[in-house]
Amino acid sequence: MFNIKLTSIPLNGLFIVLLLINFSLCFIEDGYKRYNNYSVLRFKPTTTDQLHFLYQLAQNETFLMERSVDFWTEPGSLNSSVDIMLSPEARSTLSPVFASNQLTPSVMIEDVQSRIDAENLIKGRQSLPFPFGVRGSRPNAKQFFSTYQRYDTMMSMLDEIARSNSKVATIETIGKSFEGRDLKVIKISSGSSSGKKKIWIDAGLHAREWIGPSTAMYFINKLVTSVGKDENVDSILSKYDIVVLPLANPDGYEYTHTTNRMWRKTRSLTNSRWGYICRGADPNRNWSYKWRTGGSSTNPCSDVYAGSAPFSEPEPKAMSQYILKNGPWHMYISFHSYSQLILLPWGWTTDLPKDYKEMYRVAEKAATSLKSIYDTPYTVGSATNLLYVASGGSDDWAYGEAGVPYSYTFELRDTGDHGFVLPDDLITPTAEETFVAFKTMCDEIYPNK
Ligand SMILES: [Zn+2]
User: Fold this and answer.
1) Distance 206 CA to ligand 1 centre (A)
2) Residue 210 lies in a domain
3) pLDDT digit string (tens) for 3-49?
4) Helix residue ranges per DSSP H, 28-185
């Protein structure tokens, strides 16, 4: 079987080094990694053999790096889809292998680069000057949400929102990224905090999942600027204080704008011998709760590298310290993409946590109200049971370690037509419907006030 072929690829160190040097020289031209004729294929394994084959392929990190194969969604259970981005060479090499396993993929994206070009974000893309070019003008939310903004613009918008609404919002820098960028949270509170519960929201742990930070910024803008004007916002803020970290991995996010649109991890230099070549760890495999107990990698070149130790990455470390210091929290929400899922703990085991039923009840109500806006369907379930085992995630930590009773990860739009390269005209509708889901959660988890 081809499983044997795939796993028999030599694994000695020197061989890997040569391959990786080759890889980096070939695919990053003029500072931008290009994805010409890279395709995204969707597989639906219907037999355990097929699922096992895809699983084995996903585990073969050396092969994936060598051939530039990237699992956009990982194999989970039978009949659930697996999206794989393949270089043209990998696609021609693997096509007969897929065929021999009776796997017939559908093509989700024929040419990833053309989608990236359509985002108008490769060469020469500049962040919109803040506040969008007109000296002295007020920030224009419509312009802001018309496209995916760069780190500087996002932080300027954040500062401006707080500055012009200082009774409701304050900014705090909770730490710095590996490359020294500020990790800024905005604290949103109207009136007295007495008797209120606290909600934490973060976005952008994974660099390429751009819709998350934009959605978080939409939440911030909506909550802060609608006080006294929107009864839904007033209702939320009468019961909760909310802290939002809109860009949890700014180094990775900037790297996706300047160099490699498909970067996922942080940008740290690991302390391993591979650190010369492969940077960063997966900031959603690096949290201390059940760290490295499955579904993460010890290989620094892997996209799901757990890091050299729990909280080896400064970004999740700063987040966790702030969360522990400023609790107790009633709800934790993390925005990721894509797949349209509301995920509940646990991610590290198929077992369900003791509050699962209640968390599920709230998430189901949220999914129903979300769907009522643009008919966007979401699926609710525990991360491991809907997807696969992935330990060291922030939502498991929030629930298991920080004691947050409602802990959720949203996998935002879409379901794979665009994947990570979600067109910017979908920012606002995605954020709008997600906000409605959030309002429902707020009503459900603390109704009696
Ligand atoms: Zn993610």
Assistant:
1) 5
2) yes
3) 333 333 333 333 333 333 334 333 444 578 999 999 999 999 999 99
4) 48-59, 61-67, 88-100, 112-118, 141-144, 151-163
Using the mean position of ligand 1's atoms as its centre, give its distance from the Cα of residue 190 in Å: 31
In a shared domain, residues 259 and 335: yes
- What's the pLDDT score for residue 24? 38
Q: Which residues of the chain have pLDDT under 70?
A: 1-30, 120-139, 271-276, 448-449
CATH number at residue 304: 3.40.630.10
Task: State whether the Cα torsion 249-72-150-214 is positive or negative.
Answer: negative
Residue 132 forms part of a structural domain: no
Strands 82-86 and 69-71: antiparallel
- Domain check: are 293 and 195 in the same one? yes
> Do 273 and 331 fall within a single domain?
yes
DSSP string, 91-116: HHHHHHHHHHTT---EEEES-HHHHH
Cα 174–Cα 179–Cα 184 angle in degrees, nearest 5? 25
> 214 C-alpha vs ligand 1 centroid, how far in Å?
14
Q: Where are the beta strands (DSSP E) in 196-239?
A: 197-203
Could you tell me which of 426, 249, 251 has the C-alpha nearest to residue 335? 249
CA of 24 to the centre of ligand 1 (A): 24
For 439, the domain range is 141-445
User: What pLDDT is attached to residue 278?
Assistant: 86
CA atoms within 13 A on the CB side of 384: 20
pLDDT at 124: 43
Q: Read off the amino acid at residue 283.
A: P
| Strand bridging mode 331-337 / 406-412 | parallel
| 88 and 225 both lie in a single domain | no
Contact 280, 266 (CB under 8 A): yes
74, 119, 315, 411: the catalytic one is: 411
For ligand 1, the distance from its centroid to the CA atom of residue 15, given in whole angstroms, is 30
Task: Give yes or no: residues 111 and 150 share one domain.
Answer: no
358 is catalytic: no
Predicted confidence at residue 277, as pLDDT, reads 73
124, part of any domain:
no
Q: What's the structural domain count of the chain?
A: 2
352 and 417 together in one domain: yes
In a domain, 86, yes or no: yes
